[in-house]
Structure of NADH-quinone oxidoreductase subunit B:
Amino acid sequence: MALSRRLPLISDRPLARAGLSSERVLMPNKGPGVFEEEIEKIEDALGITTVEKAVAWAQANSMWPDTFGLACCAIEMMSIVSSRYDISRFGMERFSSSPRQADLLIVSGRVTHKMAAPLRQVYDQMLEPKWVIAMGACASSGGMFNNYTVLQGVDKIVPVDVHVPGCPPRPEALMEGIIRLHEKIKAGLPPAYQIRGVAQ
Ligand code: SF4
């Protein structure tokens, strides 16, 4: 029975991973104090967390993507809503056609200079916090289109959180990029626009 399951007496989850600056973190060889052991037992038993961690968990698991399919990569992106890949598992079943109701811009395909301004406009209309995935070689670096019409990387106009390599990346690769982004958010890392600007 689940109710009769005994809780572990000593937690194996170090406080350092919970983001606390305790004496134990400063002196890792000293071992946990009695108070810290008691706190960890209570955290494990009751599921106590911080507000920041709860908000990050909610943000990572309710992220709505915006649609910005530009070329062949977009076909792979579209397939992640199918029953085979099913991103509704991550609370992402709705691809928004309105930037104001989207959190994640997945740029899939080559971005021409003509499309750069509309793309930046869509990004600016998204509410914060917002994230960007550059999907595929073309969105990340211009790919094979090293010419005057194609932007050599979407990070020249918007800050990119995750680059997904490939030409085209399979839907599994995009899923991994999305999961990595979720991990970053849950770990408390800020969105790219807070820590860096666009490439020069
Ligand atoms: S990376 Fe390859 S598949 Fe994707 S848009 Fe460029 S040429 Fe097409």
